[in-house]
Amino acid sequence: MSDTPPDRLSVDPASPFHDQAVLARGVGVRFRGVERRGVEEYCVSESWIRASAGKTRDRKGAPLLIKMTGPVEPYFLTRGPGSGQS
Questions:
Q1: What is the spatial distance between Cα 60 and Cα 37, in angstroms, rounded to a whole number?
Q2: Closest of 48, 16, 15, 19 to residue 6, by C-alpha
Q3: Which residues contact 30 (CB under 8 A, 6 or more apart)?
Q4: Which residue, of 24, 25, 47, 51, is most buried by count of CB atoms within 10 Å of its CB?
Q5: What is the mean pLDDT of residues 44-58?
Q6: Is residue 86 pLDDT above 50, yes or no?
Q7: CA angle, 21 as apex, 19 and 27 as ends, to 5°?
Q8: The whole model's pTM is what?
Q9: Residue 8 to residue 56: CA distance in whole angstroms
Q10: What are the φ/ψ torsions at residue 36 (nearest 5 degrees)?
């Protein structure tokens, strides 16, 4: 696994961009220079994130997501296996 997170990642298991191995390692997202929590999906090449809108839920019980555009910088929270440093 490389030291750069994927271009697009989603926490929703039904999404084709869901990757459990990457999520298990931990991914943080810096959006517009600010560290964001609660990011459900991001895309670096298209410069957007989807984040939950507070505690609001849709009619199926899933969090209501809003799409925000701007510079996205994902990073890993932990070092990967075989990174060479302890």
A1: 23
A2: 19
A3: 36, 72, 73, 74, 75
A4: 51
A5: 94
A6: no
A7: 80
A8: 0.84
A9: 24
A10: -110, 140
Tokens of residue 6, six digits: 């994927």
Other CB atoms within 10 A of residue 18 CB: 14
Residue-wise pLDDT tens digits, 7-20? 999 999 999 999 99
Indicate the length of the chain as a whole number: 86
Q: What is the average pLDDT score of the chain?
A: 91
Return the structure tokens found at 56: 């609001």
Q: Please, are residues 47 and 72 in contact by the beta-carbon 8 Å criterion?
A: yes
* Distance spanning both ends of the chain, measured CA to CA: 16
The average pLDDT across 23-42 equals: 95
Are the CB atoms for 68 and 19 separated by under 8 Å?
Answer: no
Q: Which residue's entry shows tokens 């507070």?
A: 54
